[in-house]
Amino acid sequence: MYTLGIESTAHTFGVGICDSSSIVANIVDSYSGEGIHPRLAADHHAKVSSDVVRKALDAAGISMDDIGLISFSQGPGLGPCLRVGATTARALSLSRDLPIIGVNHCIAHIEVGRFLLGVKDPVTLYVSGGNTQILAFAGGRYRVFGETLDIGIGNMQDTFARAIGLDFPCGKEVDGLIAKGSLYLDIPYTIKGMDFSFSGMMTEAIKLLKGNRMEDVTFSLMETAFSIVVEATERAMAHTQKTELLLAGGNAASPRLREMCDIMCRERGAEVFVPPFSVCRDNGAMIAVLGMVEHASGRRMNLAETTVRQKWRTDEEGVPWRQ
Ligand code: FE2
User: Fold this and answer.
1) Cα–ligand 1 centroid distance for 303 (angstroms)
2) Cα–Cα distance between 175 and 95 in angstroms, integer?
3) What's residue 36's pLDDT?
4) DSSP per-residue string spanning 8-75
5) Ligand 1: distance of its center to the CA of 12 in Å?
């Protein structure tokens, strides 16, 4: 049986298809306007949705007749974007009389790592534009051990990149600038307990662009931000005594962040796992995987329960498939 998963929390409309052993399709189409305007992104998703579903079925070499379950990102995310994914999922479910299941986007980032890489019980460092969190399974739930108090690390990076004239997406260009930086400039190290914030250091970095090399400012900003999240991650690993670190989210592609995680884990005798970029970024395959896992654990949902949950926290519900 195949599960079709739909992702639409933010920029990306994605459709992935999996069975119990592998991911057989993972198609994405992303809104690429300046910043993210929820309604324009939702318009984009509505325009491409049927095309992305068809492309995913073609890539898997199957038809809707082969699909046995529909899953979708129910939250957290931007309301207008989430509603496009939920509506697409309901339409597919109703027209084919298929079971439907809404899943938590952040937990999907973790479960796809467990499914693909065989990670058992990781601390997850989830770094993206909309989310920056440290998550781990404890006391029957995925708990948030630390998180940003304002913007995501990816949002900070994109806003700074716009200030230096780079277009979205800018990850590779920023990585290039980081590698060319040689002078560390003083950037506020804003960690408060296990939580952190990025907007103040971004404002300071933009000020530092006057009179300093762009490469040095980029390096200093990102080095500071990465140090903060790796420090909090290390403390979560020490507290939970876990020996696996899973990276998730689009910013997990950063070579410097991976290097810092490698060093930290080597020093504690732990192991780092990074899924391929196509499943690290927002994508439909991870939604399919979590839907399949939840359905197999006995979870069922009726249509009335499929309304979107914009602020859905990972720790709001139990995780029966891990009991
Ligand atoms: Fe994400």
Assistant:
1) 24
2) 45
3) 83
4) -SSSEEEEEEE-SS-EEEEEEEE--SSS--HHHHHHHHHHHHHHHHHHHHHHHT--GGGEEEEEEEEE
5) 9
Report the separation in Å between the CA atom of 184 and the middle of ligand 1, taken as the mean of its atom positions.
30
Cis amide bond preceding 76, omega within 30: yes
**pTM (2 d.p.):** 0.96
Q: What is the distance in A from the centroid of ligand 1 to the CA of 11?
A: 10
Mean pLDDT of the chain: 97
**pLDDT at site 32:** 86
Residues 271-316: tens digit of each pLDDT: 999 999 999 999 999 999 999 999 999 999 999 999 999 999 999 9
pLDDT at 122: 98
Mean pLDDT over residues 30-55, rounded? 93
Distance of CA 317 to the CA centre of its chain: 19
Helical ranges in the chain per DSSP H: 38-60, 79-96, 105-117, 153-163, 171-180, 199-208, 214-240, 255-268, 277-280, 284-296
* d(CA 236, ligand 1 centre) in Å: 20
What is the model's pLDDT at position 273? 98
> Token pair of 198, please?
């990025």
| Structural domains of the chain in order of their starting residue, each with its CATH number | 2-109+279-322 (3.30.420.40), 120-275 (3.30.420.40)
Nearest Cα to Cα of residue 161 among 172, 151, 150: 172
Rounded CA separation 285/297 (Å): 19
Distance (angstroms) between ligand 1 centre and the Cα of 248 equals 8
Which of residues 115 and 170 earns the better pLDDT score? 115
Confidence of residue 323 (pLDDT cuts 50, 70, 90): confident
Residue 243 alpha carbon to ligand 1 centre in Å: 23
